[in-house]
Amino acid sequence: MLLKHAEDPALRTIAGYKGYGGYATLEKAYREMEAGEVLKELEDSGLRGRGGAGFSMGKKASFLPRGEVDKYLCCNADESEPGAFKDRELMQRNPHQLIEGIAIASLAADIGHAFIFIRGEYDLQADILDEAVAEAYEAGYLGKDILGSHRDLELVVHRGAGAYICGEETALLDALEGKRGNPRLKPPFPAVQGLYGGPTLINNVETLSNVPHIVAHGAEWFKGFGTEQSPGTKVVSISGGVRRPGNYEIELGIPTRELIYGLAGGPREGREIKAFYPGGSSSPVLTAEEGLDLPYSFEAMAEAGSMLGSGSIIVADDRVSIPHMALRTARFYHHESCGKCTPCREGTNWTVKMLERVVRGEATPMDLDIISSVQENIIGHCLCVLGDSMAMPVSAMVRKFRPEFEAVIEAGQAVAV
Amino acid sequence: MSQEVNAKLPVDQALTEGRVPGRAEEGIPELHEVGCPPELQQQIETLMSRYPDRKSASIPALWAVQRLYGWCTPEGIRQAAAVMKVTPAYLESVASFYDLLHTDPVGAHKVAVCTNISCWMRGGDELLDAFRAAAAGKDAEIFVTGFECLGACDLAPMASIDERYFGPLEAADAGAAIGQIESGAEVLPEKALAKRPLPGGPDA
Fold it and tell me: Which residues contact A39 (CB under 8 A, 6 or more apart)?
Protein backbone atom coordinates (compact mmCIF):
# COMPACT_ATOMS: atom_id res chain seq x y z
CA MET A 1 0.00 0.00 0.00
CA LEU A 2 2.48 2.64 1.18
CA LEU A 3 5.50 1.48 -0.80
CA LYS A 4 3.53 0.62 -3.93
CA HIS A 5 5.23 1.98 -7.07
CA ALA A 6 8.13 3.16 -4.86
CA GLU A 7 10.63 1.84 -7.40
CA ASP A 8 9.41 4.42 -9.95
CA PRO A 9 11.47 7.63 -9.59
CA ALA A 10 8.64 9.57 -11.27
CA LEU A 11 6.44 8.92 -8.22
CA ARG A 12 8.30 11.77 -6.57
CA THR A 13 6.77 14.32 -8.94
CA ILE A 14 3.17 15.43 -8.86
CA ALA A 15 2.62 14.22 -12.43
CA GLY A 16 3.96 10.78 -11.59
CA TYR A 17 1.91 10.57 -8.40
CA LYS A 18 -1.28 11.61 -10.17
CA GLY A 19 -0.53 9.06 -12.86
CA TYR A 20 -1.07 6.38 -10.22
CA GLY A 21 -4.32 7.98 -9.03
CA GLY A 22 -2.76 10.31 -6.49
CA TYR A 23 -4.70 13.33 -5.15
CA ALA A 24 -8.01 11.83 -6.34
CA THR A 25 -8.89 11.18 -2.70
CA LEU A 26 -8.02 14.73 -1.69
CA GLU A 27 -10.25 16.00 -4.49
CA LYS A 28 -13.09 13.76 -3.37
CA ALA A 29 -12.68 14.73 0.29
CA TYR A 30 -12.48 18.49 -0.29
CA ARG A 31 -15.25 18.56 -2.89
CA GLU A 32 -17.73 16.01 -1.64
CA MET A 33 -17.13 15.12 2.00
CA GLU A 34 -17.92 16.73 5.32
CA ALA A 35 -15.11 16.98 7.89
CA GLY A 36 -17.06 14.73 10.26
CA GLU A 37 -17.40 12.03 7.61
CA VAL A 38 -13.65 11.95 7.00
CA LEU A 39 -12.94 11.88 10.72
CA LYS A 40 -15.39 9.01 11.25
CA GLU A 41 -13.69 6.98 8.53
CA LEU A 42 -10.33 7.48 10.22
CA GLU A 43 -11.72 6.54 13.64
CA ASP A 44 -13.50 3.46 12.30
CA SER A 45 -10.38 2.26 10.51
CA GLY A 46 -8.62 1.62 13.82
CA LEU A 47 -5.38 3.04 12.36
CA ARG A 48 -2.84 3.12 15.16
CA GLY A 49 -0.04 5.71 15.29
CA ARG A 50 3.09 4.46 13.56
CA GLY A 51 5.54 6.62 15.50
CA GLY A 52 5.94 4.31 18.47
CA ALA A 53 3.07 4.70 20.93
CA GLY A 54 0.44 3.03 18.72
CA PHE A 55 -2.43 5.27 19.82
CA SER A 56 -5.56 5.42 17.66
CA MET A 57 -5.04 8.16 15.06
CA GLY A 58 -8.73 8.92 14.56
CA LYS A 59 -9.35 9.16 18.27
CA LYS A 60 -6.46 11.58 18.65
CA ALA A 61 -7.87 13.76 15.89
CA SER A 62 -11.32 13.68 17.53
CA PHE A 63 -9.83 15.16 20.74
CA LEU A 64 -9.26 18.48 19.00
CA PRO A 65 -11.93 21.00 19.95
CA ARG A 66 -14.33 22.18 17.25
CA GLY A 67 -15.00 25.77 16.37
CA GLU A 68 -13.15 28.94 15.51
CA VAL A 69 -9.71 28.59 16.99
CA ASP A 70 -6.27 28.38 15.40
CA LYS A 71 -5.47 24.69 15.18
CA TYR A 72 -2.31 23.08 13.93
CA LEU A 73 -1.10 19.81 12.52
CA CYS A 74 2.50 18.70 13.00
CA CYS A 75 3.80 15.78 11.03
CA ASN A 76 6.52 14.18 13.11
CA ALA A 77 9.30 13.38 10.65
CA ASP A 78 12.05 13.53 13.26
CA GLU A 79 12.68 9.78 12.93
CA SER A 80 15.78 9.38 15.11
CA GLU A 81 15.20 6.14 16.97
CA PRO A 82 18.17 3.86 16.32
CA GLY A 83 17.01 1.17 13.91
CA ALA A 84 14.21 3.23 12.33
CA PHE A 85 14.51 4.42 8.73
CA LYS A 86 11.05 3.87 7.25
CA ASP A 87 9.91 7.52 7.23
CA ARG A 88 13.06 8.44 5.32
CA GLU A 89 12.09 5.98 2.60
CA LEU A 90 8.44 7.08 2.52
CA MET A 91 9.35 10.76 2.19
CA GLN A 92 12.09 10.18 -0.34
CA ARG A 93 10.10 7.86 -2.58
CA ASN A 94 6.57 9.18 -2.19
CA PRO A 95 6.41 12.71 -0.76
CA HIS A 96 3.00 13.51 -2.27
CA GLN A 97 1.34 10.59 -0.47
CA LEU A 98 2.33 12.29 2.79
CA ILE A 99 1.19 15.73 1.63
CA GLU A 100 -2.16 14.32 0.53
CA GLY A 101 -2.52 12.59 3.92
CA ILE A 102 -1.72 15.83 5.76
CA ALA A 103 -4.28 17.76 3.71
CA ILE A 104 -7.02 15.18 4.32
CA ALA A 105 -6.25 14.89 8.05
CA SER A 106 -6.32 18.69 8.27
CA LEU A 107 -9.76 18.66 6.67
CA ALA A 108 -10.97 16.04 9.16
CA ALA A 109 -9.85 18.07 12.17
CA ASP A 110 -10.58 21.48 10.63
CA ILE A 111 -6.95 22.61 10.71
CA GLY A 112 -5.57 25.55 8.71
CA HIS A 113 -1.85 25.37 9.38
CA ALA A 114 0.39 22.32 9.08
CA PHE A 115 4.08 21.67 9.53
CA ILE A 116 6.37 18.80 8.67
CA PHE A 117 9.09 18.68 11.33
CA ILE A 118 11.87 16.76 9.63
CA ARG A 119 15.18 15.95 11.29
CA GLY A 120 18.01 18.14 10.01
CA GLU A 121 20.06 15.14 8.95
CA TYR A 122 17.43 14.24 6.31
CA ASP A 123 18.52 17.06 4.03
CA LEU A 124 17.91 15.15 0.80
CA GLN A 125 14.39 14.20 1.90
CA ALA A 126 13.65 17.75 3.07
CA ASP A 127 14.70 19.07 -0.35
CA ILE A 128 12.39 16.53 -2.00
CA LEU A 129 9.53 17.58 0.29
CA ASP A 130 10.18 21.27 -0.41
CA GLU A 131 9.83 20.60 -4.11
CA ALA A 132 6.72 18.47 -3.66
CA VAL A 133 5.05 21.07 -1.42
CA ALA A 134 5.72 23.76 -4.04
CA GLU A 135 4.13 21.52 -6.69
CA ALA A 136 1.09 20.90 -4.49
CA TYR A 137 0.63 24.65 -3.91
CA GLU A 138 0.83 25.27 -7.63
CA ALA A 139 -1.76 22.58 -8.31
CA GLY A 140 -4.13 24.16 -5.78
CA TYR A 141 -4.01 21.28 -3.29
CA LEU A 142 -2.51 23.58 -0.66
CA GLY A 143 -2.98 27.29 0.02
CA LYS A 144 -6.12 29.42 0.00
CA ASP A 145 -9.59 28.11 -0.86
CA ILE A 146 -8.49 24.62 -1.85
CA LEU A 147 -10.53 23.38 -4.87
CA GLY A 148 -13.22 25.97 -4.14
CA SER A 149 -13.96 24.44 -0.73
CA HIS A 150 -13.44 27.73 1.16
CA ARG A 151 -10.86 25.89 3.21
CA ASP A 152 -7.25 27.05 3.53
CA LEU A 153 -4.18 25.04 4.42
CA GLU A 154 -0.63 26.33 4.76
CA LEU A 155 2.11 23.68 4.87
CA VAL A 156 5.69 24.44 5.92
CA VAL A 157 8.62 22.00 5.89
CA HIS A 158 10.62 22.74 9.03
CA ARG A 159 14.10 21.29 9.43
CA GLY A 160 15.37 20.37 12.85
CA ALA A 161 19.04 20.52 13.73
CA GLY A 162 20.01 17.23 15.32
CA ALA A 163 18.34 16.21 18.58
CA TYR A 164 16.63 12.86 19.19
CA ILE A 165 14.49 14.41 21.90
CA CYS A 166 12.63 16.48 19.29
CA GLY A 167 10.84 13.32 18.20
CA GLU A 168 9.05 13.52 21.55
CA GLU A 169 5.92 15.40 20.66
CA THR A 170 6.08 18.23 23.18
CA ALA A 171 9.82 18.76 22.64
CA LEU A 172 9.04 18.90 18.93
CA LEU A 173 6.59 21.73 19.64
CA ASP A 174 9.23 23.66 21.58
CA ALA A 175 11.73 23.20 18.76
CA LEU A 176 9.15 24.34 16.22
CA GLU A 177 8.50 27.42 18.34
CA GLY A 178 12.20 28.21 18.04
CA LYS A 179 13.38 27.05 21.43
CA ARG A 180 15.66 24.38 22.83
CA GLY A 181 13.78 21.12 22.42
CA ASN A 182 12.78 20.32 26.00
CA PRO A 183 9.69 18.21 26.69
CA ARG A 184 6.71 19.81 28.40
CA LEU A 185 4.63 18.55 31.27
CA LYS A 186 1.52 16.66 30.14
CA PRO A 187 -1.36 17.33 30.58
CA PRO A 188 -2.28 19.58 28.90
CA PHE A 189 -1.92 17.28 25.91
CA PRO A 190 -1.08 18.86 22.55
CA ALA A 191 -4.62 18.15 21.27
CA VAL A 192 -5.81 20.71 23.82
CA GLN A 193 -2.83 23.04 24.06
CA GLY A 194 0.03 22.52 21.69
CA LEU A 195 1.85 24.66 19.15
CA TYR A 196 1.58 28.40 19.98
CA GLY A 197 -0.89 27.35 22.69
CA GLY A 198 -3.40 26.10 20.10
CA PRO A 199 -4.90 22.63 19.76
CA THR A 200 -2.43 20.53 17.77
CA LEU A 201 -2.63 17.15 16.07
CA ILE A 202 0.75 15.41 15.95
CA ASN A 203 1.18 12.33 13.78
CA ASN A 204 4.02 10.35 12.35
CA VAL A 205 4.88 10.29 8.62
CA GLU A 206 3.74 6.71 8.12
CA THR A 207 0.46 7.30 10.00
CA LEU A 208 -0.42 10.25 7.77
CA SER A 209 0.69 8.38 4.65
CA ASN A 210 -2.04 5.82 5.41
CA VAL A 211 -4.77 8.46 5.46
CA PRO A 212 -5.38 8.79 1.69
CA HIS A 213 -5.74 5.01 1.36
CA ILE A 214 -8.26 4.77 4.20
CA VAL A 215 -10.39 7.62 2.93
CA ALA A 216 -10.20 6.31 -0.65
CA HIS A 217 -11.25 2.73 0.10
CA GLY A 218 -13.04 3.01 3.44
CA ALA A 219 -12.40 1.81 6.97
CA GLU A 220 -13.76 -1.69 6.31
CA TRP A 221 -11.32 -2.26 3.47
CA PHE A 222 -8.42 -1.11 5.68
CA LYS A 223 -9.46 -3.47 8.46
CA GLY A 224 -9.20 -6.33 5.99
CA PHE A 225 -5.42 -6.09 6.40
CA GLY A 226 -3.54 -7.10 9.53
CA THR A 227 -5.09 -8.19 12.80
CA GLU A 228 -8.17 -6.98 14.64
CA GLN A 229 -6.17 -4.83 17.05
CA SER A 230 -3.43 -3.91 14.59
CA PRO A 231 -5.20 -3.24 11.31
CA GLY A 232 -3.38 -2.22 8.15
CA THR A 233 0.11 -2.69 6.84
CA LYS A 234 3.34 -1.63 8.46
CA VAL A 235 6.62 -0.59 6.95
CA VAL A 236 9.21 -2.46 8.99
CA SER A 237 12.87 -1.44 9.04
CA ILE A 238 15.15 -4.44 9.52
CA SER A 239 18.86 -3.97 10.13
CA GLY A 240 21.89 -5.35 11.92
CA GLY A 241 22.96 -8.94 11.43
CA VAL A 242 20.82 -9.90 8.42
CA ARG A 243 21.63 -10.45 4.76
CA ARG A 244 19.17 -7.95 3.30
CA PRO A 245 18.66 -5.02 5.65
CA GLY A 246 15.92 -2.69 4.43
CA ASN A 247 12.32 -1.53 4.61
CA TYR A 248 9.62 -4.10 4.06
CA GLU A 249 5.89 -3.41 4.01
CA ILE A 250 3.96 -6.23 5.65
CA GLU A 251 0.54 -6.96 7.06
CA LEU A 252 0.73 -6.78 10.83
CA GLY A 253 0.47 -10.18 12.47
CA ILE A 254 2.75 -12.20 10.20
CA PRO A 255 5.29 -14.42 12.00
CA THR A 256 8.40 -12.54 13.03
CA ARG A 257 10.50 -15.38 11.69
CA GLU A 258 9.09 -14.80 8.22
CA LEU A 259 10.15 -11.15 8.42
CA ILE A 260 13.69 -11.78 9.61
CA TYR A 261 14.42 -14.98 7.67
CA GLY A 262 12.09 -14.64 4.69
CA LEU A 263 12.24 -10.97 3.78
CA ALA A 264 15.54 -9.90 5.33
CA GLY A 265 17.31 -13.14 4.37
CA GLY A 266 18.20 -14.34 7.86
CA PRO A 267 21.65 -14.20 9.45
CA ARG A 268 24.80 -13.90 7.40
CA GLU A 269 26.89 -16.94 6.43
CA GLY A 270 27.86 -19.08 9.38
CA ARG A 271 26.08 -17.00 11.98
CA GLU A 272 23.02 -17.46 14.14
CA ILE A 273 20.51 -15.03 15.53
CA LYS A 274 20.95 -14.44 19.23
CA ALA A 275 18.48 -11.67 20.03
CA PHE A 276 16.66 -8.74 18.48
CA TYR A 277 15.07 -5.42 19.32
CA PRO A 278 11.53 -5.78 17.93
CA GLY A 279 10.64 -2.07 17.87
CA GLY A 280 13.70 0.16 17.77
CA SER A 281 16.51 0.53 20.29
CA SER A 282 14.09 1.52 23.06
CA SER A 283 12.19 -1.77 22.97
CA PRO A 284 13.20 -4.52 25.40
CA VAL A 285 15.26 -7.08 23.47
CA LEU A 286 13.80 -10.51 22.87
CA THR A 287 15.93 -13.61 22.66
CA ALA A 288 15.67 -15.62 19.44
CA GLU A 289 13.85 -18.41 21.28
CA GLU A 290 11.18 -16.19 22.80
CA GLY A 291 10.66 -13.83 19.90
CA LEU A 292 11.04 -15.46 16.50
CA ASP A 293 7.80 -17.40 16.56
CA LEU A 294 5.59 -14.56 17.78
CA PRO A 295 3.29 -12.80 15.34
CA TYR A 296 4.61 -9.34 14.54
CA SER A 297 1.84 -7.12 15.94
CA PHE A 298 1.34 -4.42 18.57
CA GLU A 299 -0.49 -6.82 20.90
CA ALA A 300 1.82 -9.85 20.57
CA MET A 301 4.93 -7.77 21.24
CA ALA A 302 3.29 -6.10 24.25
CA GLU A 303 2.29 -9.50 25.62
CA ALA A 304 5.89 -10.68 25.32
CA GLY A 305 6.94 -7.76 27.51
CA SER A 306 8.32 -5.70 24.66
CA MET A 307 6.78 -3.41 22.07
CA LEU A 308 6.32 -2.94 18.36
CA GLY A 309 7.21 0.75 18.72
CA SER A 310 8.13 2.29 15.40
CA GLY A 311 8.43 -1.17 13.82
CA SER A 312 12.21 -1.33 13.61
CA ILE A 313 13.93 -4.65 14.08
CA ILE A 314 17.63 -4.69 14.93
CA VAL A 315 19.06 -8.20 14.80
CA ALA A 316 22.04 -9.22 16.92
CA ASP A 317 23.81 -12.36 15.74
CA ASP A 318 25.97 -14.68 17.83
CA ARG A 319 29.09 -12.56 17.34
CA VAL A 320 27.57 -9.56 19.07
CA SER A 321 28.59 -9.00 22.68
CA ILE A 322 25.41 -8.16 24.58
CA PRO A 323 27.22 -6.09 27.26
CA HIS A 324 28.69 -4.01 24.43
CA MET A 325 25.30 -3.66 22.80
CA ALA A 326 23.85 -2.51 26.12
CA LEU A 327 26.62 0.08 26.38
CA ARG A 328 26.02 1.36 22.81
CA THR A 329 22.33 1.68 23.62
CA ALA A 330 22.92 3.48 26.91
CA ARG A 331 25.47 5.87 25.38
CA PHE A 332 22.95 6.98 22.80
CA TYR A 333 20.30 7.89 25.37
CA HIS A 334 22.89 9.53 27.60
CA HIS A 335 24.01 11.71 24.70
CA GLU A 336 20.45 12.59 23.75
CA SER A 337 19.05 13.22 27.24
CA CYS A 338 18.03 16.88 27.36
CA GLY A 339 18.93 17.06 31.04
CA LYS A 340 15.63 18.46 32.26
CA CYS A 341 14.67 15.56 34.57
CA THR A 342 17.14 14.22 37.12
CA PRO A 343 16.39 10.46 36.87
CA CYS A 344 17.09 10.52 33.14
CA ARG A 345 20.06 12.90 33.19
CA GLU A 346 21.83 11.12 36.06
CA GLY A 347 20.51 7.64 35.38
CA THR A 348 21.71 7.52 31.77
CA ASN A 349 25.08 8.91 32.85
CA TRP A 350 25.66 6.34 35.61
CA THR A 351 24.38 3.47 33.50
CA VAL A 352 27.00 4.30 30.87
CA LYS A 353 29.73 4.50 33.49
CA MET A 354 28.77 1.17 35.02
CA LEU A 355 28.50 -0.59 31.66
CA GLU A 356 31.90 0.81 30.70
CA ARG A 357 33.28 -0.78 33.84
CA VAL A 358 31.67 -4.06 32.81
CA VAL A 359 33.21 -4.20 29.35
CA ARG A 360 36.59 -2.98 30.65
CA GLY A 361 36.60 -5.93 33.02
CA GLU A 362 36.52 -3.76 36.15
CA ALA A 363 33.04 -4.51 37.43
CA THR A 364 31.88 -6.67 40.33
CA PRO A 365 28.77 -8.91 40.24
CA MET A 366 27.04 -6.39 42.50
CA ASP A 367 27.21 -3.84 39.68
CA LEU A 368 24.61 -5.78 37.72
CA ASP A 369 22.08 -5.39 40.52
CA ILE A 370 22.89 -1.70 40.80
CA ILE A 371 22.44 -1.29 37.04
CA SER A 372 19.06 -2.99 37.29
CA SER A 373 17.96 -0.86 40.23
CA VAL A 374 18.98 2.36 38.44
CA GLN A 375 16.81 1.33 35.49
CA GLU A 376 13.84 0.69 37.80
CA ASN A 377 14.24 4.13 39.28
CA ILE A 378 14.17 5.84 35.89
CA ILE A 379 11.05 4.20 34.49
CA GLY A 380 7.97 6.34 34.90
CA HIS A 381 9.75 9.11 36.77
CA CYS A 382 10.35 11.68 34.04
CA LEU A 383 8.41 14.12 31.90
CA CYS A 384 8.98 12.05 28.77
CA VAL A 385 9.98 8.49 28.00
CA LEU A 386 13.57 9.08 26.87
CA GLY A 387 14.97 7.70 30.12
CA ASP A 388 12.57 4.75 29.99
CA SER A 389 13.75 4.13 26.45
CA MET A 390 17.19 3.30 27.80
CA ALA A 391 16.02 1.62 30.98
CA MET A 392 13.72 -0.88 29.26
CA PRO A 393 16.21 -2.44 26.81
CA VAL A 394 19.16 -2.26 29.23
CA SER A 395 17.30 -3.96 32.06
CA ALA A 396 16.00 -6.60 29.64
CA MET A 397 19.54 -7.32 28.44
CA VAL A 398 20.91 -7.62 31.98
CA ARG A 399 18.00 -9.89 32.97
CA LYS A 400 17.97 -12.15 29.91
CA PHE A 401 21.71 -12.36 29.31
CA ARG A 402 22.89 -12.27 32.90
CA PRO A 403 25.24 -15.26 32.44
CA GLU A 404 27.00 -13.42 29.61
CA PHE A 405 27.43 -10.31 31.77
CA GLU A 406 28.64 -12.46 34.68
CA ALA A 407 31.13 -14.29 32.47
CA VAL A 408 32.54 -10.96 31.35
CA ILE A 409 32.81 -9.76 34.94
CA GLU A 410 34.38 -13.02 36.12
CA ALA A 411 37.00 -12.99 33.37
CA GLY A 412 38.04 -9.57 34.66
CA GLN A 413 39.35 -8.64 31.25
CA ALA A 414 38.27 -6.10 28.72
CA VAL A 415 35.90 -7.66 26.16
CA ALA A 416 36.75 -7.26 22.52
CA VAL A 417 33.91 -6.07 20.35
CA MET B 1 38.39 26.44 25.85
CA SER B 2 41.07 27.74 28.18
CA GLN B 3 40.72 26.90 31.82
CA GLU B 4 42.93 29.78 32.98
CA VAL B 5 40.89 31.84 35.38
CA ASN B 6 40.74 35.56 34.78
CA ALA B 7 40.78 37.00 38.30
CA LYS B 8 39.06 40.20 37.23
CA LEU B 9 35.86 38.43 36.27
CA PRO B 10 33.23 36.78 38.45
CA VAL B 11 33.87 33.04 38.65
CA ASP B 12 30.97 31.99 36.44
CA GLN B 13 32.15 34.28 33.65
CA ALA B 14 35.86 33.67 34.15
CA LEU B 15 35.45 30.06 33.03
CA THR B 16 33.61 30.98 29.86
CA GLU B 17 36.33 32.84 28.02
CA GLY B 18 35.30 33.77 24.50
CA ARG B 19 31.68 33.59 25.51
CA VAL B 20 31.68 36.63 27.80
CA PRO B 21 29.23 39.18 26.39
CA GLY B 22 30.67 42.49 25.27
CA ARG B 23 28.36 44.37 27.59
CA ALA B 24 27.03 43.35 30.97
CA GLU B 25 23.59 42.67 29.54
CA GLU B 26 23.45 42.60 25.80
CA GLY B 27 20.02 43.40 24.53
CA ILE B 28 18.73 43.10 21.01
CA PRO B 29 21.40 44.48 18.66
CA GLU B 30 20.49 47.17 16.14
CA LEU B 31 20.66 46.11 12.51
CA HIS B 32 23.02 48.94 11.57
CA GLU B 33 25.51 47.83 14.25
CA VAL B 34 26.01 44.29 13.03
CA GLY B 35 26.84 44.58 9.32
CA CYS B 36 24.43 41.86 8.27
CA PRO B 37 24.90 40.91 4.59
CA PRO B 38 21.69 41.87 2.71
CA GLU B 39 21.20 38.30 1.37
CA LEU B 40 21.28 36.87 4.88
CA GLN B 41 18.84 39.51 6.12
CA GLN B 42 16.49 38.81 3.26
CA GLN B 43 16.68 35.05 3.80
CA ILE B 44 15.86 35.33 7.49
CA GLU B 45 13.00 37.76 6.86
CA THR B 46 11.50 35.33 4.34
CA LEU B 47 11.85 32.52 6.87
CA MET B 48 10.11 34.55 9.57
CA SER B 49 7.21 35.30 7.26
CA ARG B 50 6.42 31.58 7.00
CA TYR B 51 5.49 31.18 10.66
CA PRO B 52 2.74 32.60 12.87
CA ASP B 53 5.47 33.52 15.38
CA ARG B 54 8.81 34.89 14.16
CA LYS B 55 10.76 32.99 16.82
CA SER B 56 9.92 29.76 15.00
CA ALA B 57 12.50 30.86 12.44
CA SER B 58 15.32 30.46 15.01
CA ILE B 59 16.60 27.09 13.79
CA PRO B 60 16.18 27.92 10.08
CA ALA B 61 17.93 31.26 10.64
CA LEU B 62 20.84 29.53 12.37
CA TRP B 63 21.04 27.10 9.44
CA ALA B 64 21.32 30.14 7.15
CA VAL B 65 24.11 31.56 9.29
CA GLN B 66 25.95 28.24 9.28
CA ARG B 67 25.62 27.87 5.52
CA LEU B 68 27.09 31.33 5.03
CA TYR B 69 29.98 31.20 7.52
CA GLY B 70 30.59 27.42 7.83
CA TRP B 71 29.56 27.51 11.51
CA CYS B 72 27.45 29.67 13.81
CA THR B 73 29.97 32.44 14.39
CA PRO B 74 29.31 34.96 17.19
CA GLU B 75 29.08 37.70 14.52
CA GLY B 76 26.64 35.63 12.45
CA ILE B 77 24.49 34.97 15.50
CA ARG B 78 24.40 38.72 16.30
CA GLN B 79 23.39 39.45 12.71
CA ALA B 80 20.55 36.93 12.83
CA ALA B 81 19.50 38.21 16.25
CA ALA B 82 19.30 41.78 14.95
CA VAL B 83 17.10 40.71 12.04
CA MET B 84 14.88 38.54 14.25
CA LYS B 85 14.71 41.09 17.08
CA VAL B 86 15.84 38.62 19.70
CA THR B 87 18.98 38.66 21.85
CA PRO B 88 22.13 36.90 20.58
CA ALA B 89 22.12 34.96 23.87
CA TYR B 90 18.74 33.52 22.95
CA LEU B 91 19.95 32.28 19.57
CA GLU B 92 23.15 30.96 21.11
CA SER B 93 21.10 28.99 23.65
CA VAL B 94 19.22 27.42 20.76
CA ALA B 95 22.33 26.73 18.67
CA SER B 96 24.16 25.07 21.55
CA PHE B 97 21.31 22.58 22.05
CA TYR B 98 21.48 20.99 18.61
CA ASP B 99 24.18 18.63 17.34
CA LEU B 100 24.16 19.91 13.77
CA LEU B 101 24.66 23.57 14.68
CA HIS B 102 28.26 24.36 15.50
CA THR B 103 29.13 27.15 17.92
CA ASP B 104 32.86 26.46 17.58
CA PRO B 105 34.88 26.70 14.37
CA VAL B 106 34.73 23.57 12.20
CA GLY B 107 35.72 22.78 8.64
CA ALA B 108 33.27 23.76 5.92
CA HIS B 109 32.95 20.15 4.71
CA LYS B 110 31.27 17.89 7.22
CA VAL B 111 31.54 14.12 7.51
CA ALA B 112 29.36 12.37 10.12
CA VAL B 113 29.97 8.65 10.53
CA CYS B 114 27.22 6.69 12.26
CA THR B 115 28.45 4.67 15.23
CA ASN B 116 25.08 3.58 16.57
CA ILE B 117 23.94 -0.04 17.08
CA SER B 118 23.30 -1.26 13.52
CA CYS B 119 26.33 0.50 12.01
CA TRP B 120 28.53 -0.57 14.93
CA MET B 121 27.57 -4.21 14.25
CA ARG B 122 28.76 -3.78 10.66
CA GLY B 123 31.98 -1.86 11.22
CA GLY B 124 30.96 1.75 11.94
CA ASP B 125 33.79 2.31 14.42
CA GLU B 126 36.40 1.13 11.92
CA LEU B 127 34.85 3.37 9.26
CA LEU B 128 35.10 6.37 11.57
CA ASP B 129 38.78 5.56 12.22
CA ALA B 130 39.37 5.34 8.47
CA PHE B 131 37.77 8.75 7.86
CA ARG B 132 39.74 10.30 10.73
CA ALA B 133 42.98 8.90 9.32
CA ALA B 134 42.17 10.05 5.79
CA ALA B 135 41.32 13.56 6.95
CA ALA B 136 44.18 13.89 9.44
CA GLY B 137 45.76 17.34 9.30
CA LYS B 138 42.92 18.71 7.19
CA ASP B 139 40.72 19.88 10.08
CA ALA B 140 40.53 23.39 8.71
CA GLU B 141 38.58 22.17 5.67
CA ILE B 142 37.06 18.85 6.69
CA PHE B 143 35.28 18.14 9.94
CA VAL B 144 34.98 14.43 10.74
CA THR B 145 32.86 13.27 13.63
CA GLY B 146 31.15 10.17 14.96
CA PHE B 147 27.39 10.57 15.06
CA GLU B 148 24.34 8.96 16.58
CA CYS B 149 21.89 7.01 14.40
CA LEU B 150 21.39 8.86 11.10
CA GLY B 151 18.35 6.80 10.14
CA ALA B 152 19.99 4.72 7.43
CA CYS B 153 20.67 1.37 9.10
CA ASP B 154 19.90 -0.31 5.77
CA LEU B 155 23.13 1.25 4.46
CA ALA B 156 25.24 0.26 7.47
CA PRO B 157 27.99 1.18 7.91
CA MET B 158 27.28 4.61 6.49
CA ALA B 159 28.23 8.26 6.64
CA SER B 160 26.66 11.59 5.90
CA ILE B 161 29.00 13.70 3.77
CA ASP B 162 28.01 17.34 3.31
CA GLU B 163 24.41 16.42 4.21
CA ARG B 164 24.08 13.53 1.77
CA TYR B 165 24.02 9.84 2.73
CA PHE B 166 26.44 7.17 1.47
CA GLY B 167 26.63 3.45 2.22
CA PRO B 168 27.32 0.67 2.77
CA LEU B 169 30.92 1.88 2.99
CA GLU B 170 34.24 0.13 3.39
CA ALA B 171 37.33 1.59 4.99
CA ALA B 172 38.83 2.17 1.50
CA ASP B 173 35.91 4.43 0.59
CA ALA B 174 36.98 6.92 3.25
CA GLY B 175 40.22 7.85 1.48
CA ALA B 176 38.43 8.11 -1.87
CA ALA B 177 35.71 10.32 -0.40
CA ILE B 178 38.16 12.70 1.26
CA GLY B 179 40.11 12.98 -2.02
CA GLN B 180 36.89 13.72 -3.93
CA ILE B 181 35.83 16.36 -1.41
CA GLU B 182 39.21 18.07 -1.75
CA SER B 183 39.25 18.01 -5.55
CA GLY B 184 35.61 19.07 -5.80
CA ALA B 185 34.66 15.85 -7.64
CA GLU B 186 31.40 14.00 -7.12
CA VAL B 187 31.66 12.05 -3.89
CA LEU B 188 31.28 8.23 -4.06
CA PRO B 189 28.73 8.22 -6.88
CA GLU B 190 28.26 4.45 -6.63
CA LYS B 191 27.33 4.59 -2.97
CA ALA B 192 24.90 7.51 -2.81
CA LEU B 193 21.53 6.87 -1.19
CA ALA B 194 19.97 9.31 -3.65
CA LYS B 195 20.81 6.91 -6.48
CA ARG B 196 19.53 3.69 -4.97
CA PRO B 197 16.98 2.31 -7.42
CA LEU B 198 14.82 0.30 -5.03
CA PRO B 199 13.49 0.77 -1.55
CA GLY B 200 15.11 -1.46 1.01
CA GLY B 201 18.69 -2.48 1.47
CA PRO B 202 21.26 -3.96 -0.83
CA ASP B 203 20.72 -7.45 -2.18
CA ALA B 204 22.41 -10.27 -0.36
Answer: A58, A61, A62, A108, A109
